């Protein structure tokens, strides 16, 4: 019998994402269309295999600090946003502490917390409230032993933007019990100021950690910049939390990859052009998805403000996974079952990859919907 202390997988979504059957039209991911070396001028000339990288490649730490207008003592580099999230959680938690995680949500967050021996509680961020953060739900789920609250902005999987006042209210609630709020911001940078259709002046792309020390911001060069292969991530926090996170890295992976962090510096020197490239992929991809949704009365959604994914709900069913499996088996199109995010009646669609794959995949998905087999 398996030992219940060691589950078969800590993060079911990540395990599924790595091992599910491949399809011709793979719309299961969430990354931006990858950059090539030719789209990062100077990459080949800059590469090196060696260097001193004890607490993050110093030029990269400085580049991140300069980009966000903060002191370098507030920055820790990491192996992608996943590494940054793990380091932040490990800096805050001890076995038996509680973590409060949004749900629906990105399951590696709760998986990392469980791995660290924490108790995971959830607060609802669901369909009935258009996936917005409701501070009252956070307050109801908060306990005296909560040491971290974890949210995403933009919300993964729905793409909903966390309004400033709601996020600050969560921060104030966390502070009342001595907790911090980890805000995973991997989709935030690629937003334009005018992307919030109702209140364009309300979009704030600054890291939450720049506003208040109760927040820890995590990010990477993956979702908004198309550089997933570099695995360059970072966290921004008050210096004492950064120091604790760096000591976590001593036992996690020691130091970062010199080639990756050297290329990360080069990327930060070209970040604005990389963002324009990202918007040139994301905008058209989201428009194609909007047109598809407008033609599908069997689906409904909360239209995302941005990001690389959409999260439709299949009307009239409690669980969309049988449809997802049928679409993969019979129409060769893959989307991600919503059960991995805590919303089984939904499925997640990648909109930021190859345009031809998105268009062909949505055409195939439409045929699967027309088949009407659920």
CATH superfamily of the largest domain: Type I PLP-dependent aspartate aminotransferase-like (Major domain)
In N-to-C order, the SSE pattern is HEHHEHEHEHEHEEEHHHEEEHEEEH
Terminus-to-terminus distance: 34 Å
Total of domains:
2
Q: How much β-strand is present in the residues?
A: 5-15%
Largest sheet geometry: 7 strands, mixed
Q: How many distinct beta strands?
A: 14
Quick one: overall form? globular
State mean pLDDT (0 to 100 scale): 92
Total count of helical runs of at least 4 residues = 12
CATH topology of the largest domain: Aspartate Aminotransferase, domain 2
Overall CATH class of the largest domain:
Alpha Beta
Radius of gyration: 20 Å
Q: Walk across the major sheet and give the strand order.
A: 2-8-7-6-5-3-4
User: Unreliable stretches, pLDDT < 50, 5 or more residues?
Assistant: none
Share of helix, binned: 25-40%
Q: Which second-level CATH architecture of the largest domain applies? A: 3-Layer(aba) Sandwich
> What structural category do the secondary elements indicate?
alpha/beta
């Amino acid at each position: 019998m398996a030992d219940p202390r060691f589950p078969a997988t800590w993060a079911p979504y990540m395990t599924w994402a790595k091992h599910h059957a491949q399809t011709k039209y793979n719309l299961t991911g969430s990354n931006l269309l990858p950059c090539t070396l030719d789209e990062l001028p100077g990459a080949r000339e800059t590469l090196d295999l060696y260097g001193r990288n004890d607490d993050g490649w110093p030029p990269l730490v400085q580049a991140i600090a300069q980009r966000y207008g903060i002191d370098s003592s507030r920055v820790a580099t990491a192996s992608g946003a996943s590494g940054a999230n793990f380091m932040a959680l490990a800096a805050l938690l001890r076995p038996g502490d509680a973590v409060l995680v949004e749900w629906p949500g990105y399951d590696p967050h709760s998986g990392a917390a469980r791995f660290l021996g924490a108790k995971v509680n959830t607060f609802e961020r669901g369909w009935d409230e258009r996936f917005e953060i409701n501070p009252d739900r956070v307050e109801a789920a908060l306990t005296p032993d909560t040491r971290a609250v974890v949210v995403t902005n933009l919300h993964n999987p729905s793409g909903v933007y966390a309004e400033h006042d709601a996020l600050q209210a969560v921060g104030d609630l966390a502070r009342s019990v001595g907790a911090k709020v980890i805000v995973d911001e991997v989709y935030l940078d690629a937003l334009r100021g005018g992307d919030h259709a109702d209140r364009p002046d309300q979009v704030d792309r600054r890291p939450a950690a720049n506003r208040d020390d109760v927040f820890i911001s995590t990010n990477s060069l993956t979702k908004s910049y198309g550089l997933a292969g570099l695995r360059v991530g970072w966290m921004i926090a008050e210096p004492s939390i950064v120091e604790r996170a760096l000591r976590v890295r001593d036992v996690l992976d020691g130091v970062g990859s010199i080639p990756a962090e050297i290329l990360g510096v080069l990327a930060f020197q070209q970040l604005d052009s990389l963002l324009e490239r990202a918007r040139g992929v994301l905008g058209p991809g989201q428009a194609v998805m909007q047109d598809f949704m407008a033609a599908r009365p069997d689906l409904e959604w909360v239209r995302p403000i941005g990001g690389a994914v959409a999260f439709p709900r299949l009307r009239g069913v409690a669980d969309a996974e049988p449809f997802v499996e049928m679409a993969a088996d019979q129409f060769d199109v893959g989307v991600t079952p919503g059960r991995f995010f805590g919303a089984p009646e939904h499925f997640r669609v990648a909109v930021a990859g190859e345009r031809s794959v998105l268009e062909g995949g949505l055409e195939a998905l439409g045929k699967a919907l027309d088949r009407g087999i659920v």
